[in-house]
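Structure (tokenized):
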């Protein structure tokens, strides 16, 4: 997920008949949140990195691999982003990619996680600098990932079977 100064606006409560004003930054400073979550246990792993590319994806995969319990294997659902399918990607032996068909974000539960985080933590924001963006995303991810029931409810899909 990209987050930063070109953030999103969302609805806010206001007195009927008024038009509340919200500031929207036009600068282009941003960062990226790489994350994965388990729909069964609510366990999650994330890294905030300055770029969305193959090198950053390799760093995230290594971090995710290090957080997988010994003897377990992760089936990671991915979309067709260039850094998810690059030939230079180094996929650890305890992770298997499950690629989604094109134009099917509704099958990727992480898309709903990004939407939830934007609506609850990241919209209608202004950031002073890059560190402010990183701090805000860190706080948002920590608050989200600590709420195991919320993680499970957003990530749950009837069609996923995990023995």
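Design, position by position:
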């Amino acid at each position: 997920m990209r987050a930063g100064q070109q953030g999103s606006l969302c609805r806010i409560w206001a007195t009927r008949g008024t038009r509340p004003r919200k500031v929207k930054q036009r600068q282009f400073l941003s960062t990226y949140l790489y994350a994965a979550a388990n729909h069964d246990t609510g366990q999650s792993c994330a890294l905030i990195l300055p770029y969305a590319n193959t090198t950053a994806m390799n760093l995230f995969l290594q971090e995710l691999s290090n957080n997988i319990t010994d003897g377990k294997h992760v089936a990671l659902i991915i979309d067709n982003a260039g850094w998810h399918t690059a030939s230079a990607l180094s996929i650890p032996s305890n992770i298997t990619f499950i690629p989604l068909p094109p134009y099917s974000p509704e099958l990727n539960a992480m898309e709903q996680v990004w939407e939830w985080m934007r609506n609850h933590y990241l919209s209608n924001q202004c950031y002073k600098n890059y560190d402010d963006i990183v701090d805000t995303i860190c706080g948002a991810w920590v608050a989200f990932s600590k709420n195991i029931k919320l993680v499970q409810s957003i990530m749950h899909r009837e069609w996923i079977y995990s023995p």
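Reviewer-requested clarification: The helical segments are 54-66, 82-85, 109-122, 130-146, 148-155. The radius of gyration is 17 Å.
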